[in-house]
Amino acid sequence: MVAGRQPGADTIFVGHCHGHPYGEIDLVIPVDDAVELAGPGDWQGLGWVCAARDTLHFLKVRNGALMTLNYMPAGRILYQFDPAEIRARRGGA
């Protein structure tokens, strides 16, 4: 359990926006039972999640702590994007 978090609270932690020019494969390893990682389609607990080539997203975790084992083909990850593209993916103008 994350210190200071109430059981059942739907706390969402959001990380930096990043992209995957060649995709990404992650193994989600829960520390807390109810923890989930936002995958490409939905929230997911224990198991594998994959981001497709040329995808862009914000890392999001809810309901606790987890660890991930990340594989990024060719070691590629991007942190610089067109601001309009980021706003569009967030649902903003």
What characteristics describe this protein?
globular, 1 helix, 93 residues, 43% strand, four-stranded antiparallel sheet, single chain, three-stranded antiparallel sheet, mainly beta, 9% helix
Termini separation: 37 Å
Fraction of residues in β-strands: 35-45%
Number of strands: 7
- Give the total of domains: 1
Radius of gyration: 14 Å
**Integer average pLDDT:** 83
Enumerate the spans where pLDDT stays under 50 for 5 or more consecutive residues: none
Order of helices and strands: EEEEEEEH
**Physical arrangement of strands within the biggest beta sheet:** 1-6-3-4
Overall 3D shape: globular
Q: Quickly count the helices.
A: 1
Name the helicity range: under 10%
Largest sheet: 4 strands, antiparallel
* Structural classification: mainly beta
Quick gist of this model?
The protein has 93 residues and is mainly β. It has one helix and seven strands; from the N terminus they run βββββββα.
Descriptive overview:
With 93 residues, the protein is mostly beta strands. The protein has one domain (10-89). It is 9% helix and 43% strand. It is built from 1 helix and 7 strands; from the N terminus they run E-E-E-E-E-E-E-H. The strands form 2 sheets. It has a 4-stranded antiparallel β-sheet with strand order 1-6-3-4, with no helix packed on it. A 3-stranded antiparallel β-sheet has the order 5-2-7, with no helix packed on it. Strand 3 and strand 4 (43-44) form a beta hairpin. The protein is globular. Pfam families: PnbB. InterPro entries: PnbB (IPR032345).
